[in-house]
Amino acid sequence: MPAAMPLALLALTLGAFAIGTTEFVIVGLIPTLAADLRVDLPAAGLLVSLYALAVAIGAPLLTALTGRVPRKALLVALMALFTAGNLLAWLAPGYATLILARVLTGLAHGVFFSVGSIIATGLVPKEKAASAIATMFSGMTVAFVTGIPLGTFLGQHFGWRATFLAVAGFGLIALIGSALFVPQRIAHSEPAPLRRQAALLLQPRLLLVYAMTAVGYGGSLIAFTFLAPILQDIAGLSPNLVGAVLLAYGVSVAVGNVWGGRLADRRGPVAALKIIFALLAAVLLALSFTAHSPWLVVLTALAWGAVAFGNVPGLQVYVVKQAQRYAPQAVDTAAGFNIAAFNLGVAGGAWAGGQVVAHLGLAHTPWIAALVVLAAFGLTALSGRLDRRDGIADRADGLAVAAH
Q: Model pTM?
């Protein structure tokens, strides 16, 4: 492999790290942002919701509209938009401008991973394509382990603007790396027209999987969006300790993703998802009782991280499996819609959490999150029952698809 190729893949991975950090670093900064901008916690939570909504809506639209643009030029433009959005957040004079900045960065996020996946597979031989995509997506995992807690630390000690400036710096490095090392010509097929993409939303079995994804992922976000206020205002932890808990949570997420993937391989996606959703609901319910104890809340956060995103591999494998049966002509598009469903879940969960905080109080977010995750368990059980009725075995069939 040419020497420039690993550097191109490193640029993609760094871009994924920056994007993963900017999406969820807000979670650790919500109390700081709310105080500085003089808005309440639900309004600060909208910074998570609107970003995710921009990802969910922007990804299919912009991917289709930019189908004829050369991949390298599009990647550089996306990283430029991402960097500009974070610089705008750094300079934002108020809440409205920060919302605009979040939407701009969300639009870049939505297209980055579809374009990045194409470029990553074009950098290596065909037999290494899956490894190249996994390497790029590892940037998201590293963001949970290091980017989000470090961004939270920066924001708490130097102001939240410093966090966005740092993320913009990473975006700029990824932009320069992409411009220098990504090959000029990357072969790609144009994405399906919007009309053909929309036709997938008329397939009931795929819609059921998308509902599992949005409800299951979104349920956890009802409480996760307000994890920092829970740790500070209910458990009584200092802002410094909140960053440490987020670091431990991120390590737990990385372990949970591996465990969730192996469970889906061994038991099949439906069986694995039922186990993970049941455990996630139990942990969230437990958080309602442990939130008042500094030590117990930390242990609960560790358990939460281990199952919070463990559903991602199973959900992506399952949607591909269902698409191969019900929409074989559009498997990639179907998987892309599941990424949109993840982000709709983030948007809806963060918004719903804000409503709970506004009308019931912060302490009620965990048990309500648990109920929503139980609804995802029910949808998963229903889908599994329909599979058995149709004679479909619950096996992963060797599929492995990156998510987010």
A: 0.85
CB contact at 8 A, 92 and 132:
no
DSSP string, 234-278: IS---HHHHHHHHHHHHHHHHHHHHHHHHHHHHH-HHHHHHHHHH
Under 8 Å CB-to-CB from 112, ≥6 apart: which residues? 15, 16, 19, 75, 78, 79, 82
CA–CA distance, 86 with 187 (Å, rounded to integer): 30
Total length of the chain: 404
Whose CA is closest to 248, among 256, 260, 236, 258?
256
Distance of CA 20 to the CA centre of its chain: 7
* Cβ-based neighbour number of residue 52 at 10 Å: 30
pLDDT in tens, the chain (404 residues): 443 447 889 999 999 999 999 999 999 999 999 999 999 999 999 999 999 999 998 877 887 788 788 889 999 999 999 999 999 999 999 999 999 999 999 999 988 987 887 788 788 887 777 678 778 888 888 998 899 999 999 999 999 999 999 999 999 999 999 999 988 877 666 666 667 777 778 899 999 999 999 999 999 999 999 999 999 999 999 988 998 999 899 889 888 888 888 888 888 889 999 999 999 999 999 999 999 999 999 999 999 999 988 888 888 888 888 888 888 877 777 877 888 899 999 999 999 999 999 999 999 999 999 999 999 999 999 999 999 998 887 765 544 444 45
Q: What's the farthest any 2 CA atoms get from each other in the chain? A: 58
136: its two tokens: 């790029």
Q: How far is CA 131 from CA 128, 144, 403, in A?
A: 5, 20, 14
Cβ(8)–Cβ(313) below 8 Å = no
